[in-house]
């Protein structure tokens, strides 16, 4: 499509430039905003990750301290009972031998076990087990029938325990010499055999035990009773795993609204408690974690971890629980899915994306508004700029039509003003040229009239000369002939001048026509 309006051309060109500029600015602004958003998200994400790791590590360490304190309390009790039993064994045995009193040592130890359990409701049980003849040398007197404080061989093995209803009862310990293992791999007699084998305290991994006819999952803490380095027996306390399970749930509830997972893991990688899967208590760590091998190794080595699992992608913190004077630490394991840890980051990303979208719409809207406003201003500016051109075009069109009665009133100092002035001067010169052409045309007409009169006179003279010759008036005829020839020559010269005058007028008319044509073309271009 051919555009014939300068105003339209100016508007389209300016509009295209404005649109390109606005699009470039808005596009760069959106690109820059997107990069800034990505940078903020990345840095905030790193900060949140580091904060999450610190929080998990701190929480795991604090809970490890709580559990360690609770288990240490049991160990201190067992340790104290062991020392007391060692002293009572010596003194009571001497007194009984001197005064002939029977059962004094056994009764005293049994009473202590009962009182300790009664005064510590958090304990599941208290117990003591002795090597053959190590307590009072009187096992043979009790051999033959097991009772609730000794076995068939007469060894003193009382176990005071409390069921979930709070009822306290006594039963003899069993399987304390057994090397067999429970289904989860825990040695049945480990709580007795390990102190005897190593001379160290023991915190046994979780195992099932029959308490008042019902199976309970528990852990037991035992210390060796020794005399001059010789192992005599053990004193110990039992702890229900329910306590640790409730602790794990409580910690989990305080962690990201209960969306994490808190577990307590034994030295051999067994689950002591799990907030997410409480039914897995006593099972291997693999029951709740795909990266169990790495975690089990860290627990056994007493290492702490605060990282992101390469296997599951979860954020995890592992804090060691040191258990008394044993070299078999447990650990608290806290795991949180990355979507939960980075929920704030995702929320921030969503907010920034929404704000970015809104800002983008505003930028596009403002850009279009400014462009429309600029086009409106440009339209008015172009109209003001084209107006004198249109006046000049209209003036030229009138002149082209032969109307010289109008004037061009454009007073500007720019190129349009110069063009208008030149056009006015051109029309003035054209008017002068046309006037001169008309004057010469009139003069040529007058000369032609005079020439025609002279020719007529010459013809008349020739006619008279011929008549005179016929009458014989030769002299008169000769004179008349001379006059006629002079008149003819003058007429020829006059005709030549008239032709020249006509040619000059024609040239001026041609110039005027070309000027009018040029003005018409300019008029068509402007309009």
Automatic annotation (TrEMBL):
Pfam families: dCache_1, HAMP
UniProtKB keywords: Cell membrane, Chemotaxis, Coiled coil, Membrane, Transmembrane, Transmembrane helix
Domain of life according to the entry: Bacteria
Coiled coil: 427-471
PROSITE patterns the UniProt entry points to: HAMP
Residues of the HAMP domain: 383-435
GO BP of this protein: chemotaxis; signal transduction
Record membrane topology: Multi-pass membrane protein
CDD domains on file: HAMP, PDC1_MCP_like, PDC2_HK_sensor
Keyword Transmembrane helix: yes
Matching SUPFAM superfamilies: HAMP domain-like, Methyl-accepting chemotaxis protein (MCP) signaling domain
InterPro entries associated with the record: dCache_1, HAMP_dom
UniProt main location, coarse: membrane
Bilayer-crossing regions: 360-382
Localization in the cell: Cell membrane
GO cellular component terms, semicolon-separated: plasma membrane
Full protein name: Methyl-accepting chemotaxis protein
Native source species: Solidesulfovibrio magneticus str. Maddingley MBC34
Lineage of origin: Bacteria, Pseudomonadati, Thermodesulfobacteriota, Desulfovibrionia, Desulfovibrionales
